[in-house]
Design goal:
Order of helices and strands: EEEEEEEEHHHHEHHEEEEEEHEEEEH
CATH architecture of the largest domain: 2-Layer Sandwich
Shape: globular
Number of helices: 8
CATH superfamily of the largest domain: Chloramphenicol acetyltransferase-like domain
Number of strands: 19
Largest sheet: 7 strands, mixed
Helix content: 10-25%
Distance between the termini: 57 Å
Radius of gyration: 25 Å
CATH class of the largest domain: Alpha Beta
């Protein structure tokens, strides 16, 4: 028999750790090669991790709910001698936690403390690695950043954890730290006795009553909660409502539904809405933008995020270059991303670089809703229930009548720091016009 180490994988260049959320096998269970072995949660994505070899799960080293650095041994498989996959006898340190090049090499097997202090400023907290077991997952999330940001922080003796981050889940970007340094001479120094670092999200603690059930948040729920609170705090939220007559779209969908299904694509109203938005975001670039300090970034790409509600939380996979896709291309992308989100097959890149988001609570029946902006974007579109309703229709001769039409409400929340009401309403008006006059040749 041979023993094969099962490692915590690195699901993206910027990811230094993962939470083992669930073991799919028990000790003693047989395992096939590439069969899902355990589930992980990172600050980017949830995923099922396949077994590196066939054999028997002999040992579990990391329990469910534990967060460990990438390349940590989480379990051991016993395999037939010929089925073993080469693996290091001891887990290697993740690159971000290795000593600087100028430091003497660490002993060959024992993970050593870095010879030089990590570049996070006077707090002394490490930016990456396991932090000696002292940091919480939330602290590691706030202090992780790109090497460039850590280098700038070290040069200016800045504690990254004290900077409000505008990146994903509150991460500190280059623009954040440069803006912080620029304001530093006139801004008061953060008081050391402050209860928590600036940018940290604190949720009030409520005492449970007898008989209540207390369920700790999953990693994805915690990240979503922090992100939503941060978004409301950062952006000046305003919303516009537009009622849209989807009758023409419904008629086209009824005729094309079967032919799309034969090509393996489910044609939904959401595909038409995403197509209409994609064609108009280029025309209204302020809606396809981001705020960076006191500047506006006009995105060159049109990448539309589609919010997917899962049993364990909410995730927003992204359709890249949506303005270059046909209707069937967008419908296929929505189907693919939604299915991979539900089966935990998304990759980190699938949920990054969004420039505009669409959320579709209408599938659950609400008339309309006011969504929270997905930072660092400046606008998000909410889709209400699309259903038949009575509507006043004006004929060509000017006479009015009441007809049954397929109607739906579109709501857009936008950041009033950069998007004026006129900008938002012009964009929505163009989206509405395209949907109501949908050309049947648009495939």
């Amino acid at each position: 028999m041979a023993r094969v180490d099962v490692l915590m994988p690195q699901m993206g260049e910027s990811i230094a750790e993962g939470t083992l959320s669930k073991w799919l096998k028990k000790v003693g269970d047989p395992v096939k090669r590439d069969e899902p072995l355990f589930e992980i949660s990172t600050d980017k994505v949830d995923a099922e991790i396949p077994a590196p070899a066939a054999g028997v799960l002999a040992e579990i080293k990391v329990q469910q709910g534990q967060t460990v650095p990438v390349q940590t041994v989480v379990g051991v498989l016993e395999t037939e001698a010929g089925a073993a996959v080469p693996a290091p006898a001891k887990p290697e340190l993740p690159k971000a936690a290795a000593p600087p090049p100028s430091a003497p090499p660490a002993p060959k097997a024992e993970p050593a403390k870095p010879a030089a202090a990590p570049a996070v400023g006077p707090s002394g907290r490490p930016a990456d690695g396991d932090g000696g077991g002292v940091q919480t997952a939330e602290q590691r999330l706030r202090t992780k950043s790109t090497p460039l940001v850590r280098k700038i922080a070290a040069e200016h003796s800045v504690d990254i954890s004290r900077i409000p981050g505008s990146g994903y889940a509150g991460r500190v970007t280059k623009q954040d730290i440069l803006g912080y340094i620029e304001r530093a001479p006139t801004a008061p120094t953060p008081r050391p006795q402050a209860p928590s670092p600036a940018g940290a999200i604190e949720h009030p603690v409520v005492e449970p009553w007898p008989g209540d059930r207390v369920e700790p948040w999953s990693k994805i729920r915690k990240i979503t909660a922090d992100h939503m609170v941060m978004s409301k705090r950062v952006s000046a939220h305003v919303a516009s409502f537009f009622e849209v007559d989807f009758t023409r779209v419904a008629q086209f969908r009824a005729k094309a539904k079967q032919s799309y299904a034969e090509r393996g694509v489910t044609l939904t109203f959401l595909a038409f809405i995403a197509k209409a938005c994609a064609e108009n975001l280029r025309k209204h670039p302020i809606v396809n933008a981001a705020v960076s300090g006191d500047s506006t970034i006009y995105r060159a790409d049109v990448n539309i995020g589609i919010a997917v509600a899962l049993d364990w939380g909410l995730i927003v996979p992204v359709i890249k270059h949506a303005d270059e896709l046909s209707l069937i291309g967008i419908a296929r992308a929505i189907n693919d991303l939604g299915e991979r989100a539900r089966t935990k097959k998304l990759l980190p890149d699938d949920i990054q670089r969004g420039t505009f988001t669409i959320t579709n609570p209408g599938g659950f029946g609400p008339f309309a809703g006011i969504p929270i902006i997905n930072q660092p974007q400046v606008a998000i579109l909410g889709v209400g229930a699309i259903e038949k309703r009575p509507k006043v229709v004006t004929a060509a001769d000017g006479t009015d009548s009441i007809a049954i039409r397929t109607m739906g409400m579109l709501t857009m929340s936008y950041d009033h720091r950069v998007v004026d009401g006129a900008d938002a309403d012009k964009f929505l008006a163009d989206v509405k016009k395209l949907l109501q006059e949908f050309p049947e040749g648009a495939v």
